[in-house]
Write a structure and sequence with these properties.
The chain is mostly helical. The radius of gyration is 15 Å and the shape is globular.
Length: 110
């Protein structure tokens, strides 16, 4: 597939009225992955992750992606705020190791 074809497929997925709620949040994950890893358009990835978080605010993975994008965009203060939120959302510390890795990544990038 060409980039244009892939983007058309992603937009069709997001515009499908049958894709709602958590499924739409997951669809945004594909858009985020595409922008981070293919186009390197971090602003577009940031826009997509914000939509995903609006749809599924409790999903830790979304907030983890947001931290990574903010670090890549050299926005450490916002990344720190998201890490603090991640810690609150991860009340059972099931993702504590991954959150620590994000903190280390942020410290290395600052």
């Amino acid at each position: 597939l060409t980039a244009i074809q892939l983007e058309s497929l992603l937009h069709a997925l997001l515009n499908n009225i049958k894709v709602t709620g958590r499924n739409k949040a997951l669809a945004y994950s594909a858009v985020i992955y595409y922008h981070v890893n293919v186009t390197h358009d971090y602003q577009a990835a940031l826009d997509a992750i914000n939509h995903s978080i609006e749809l599924d605010p409790q999903e830790l993975e979304n907030h983890m992606w947001l931290v990574k994008i903010l670090v890549a965009m050299h926005r450490p203060d916002e990344a720190r705020e998201q890490i603090a939120l991640l810690k609150k959302l991860d009340a059972r510390s099931m993702r504590a190791r991954e959150i620590t890795l994000l903190e280390n990544e942020l410290a290395d990038g600052s």
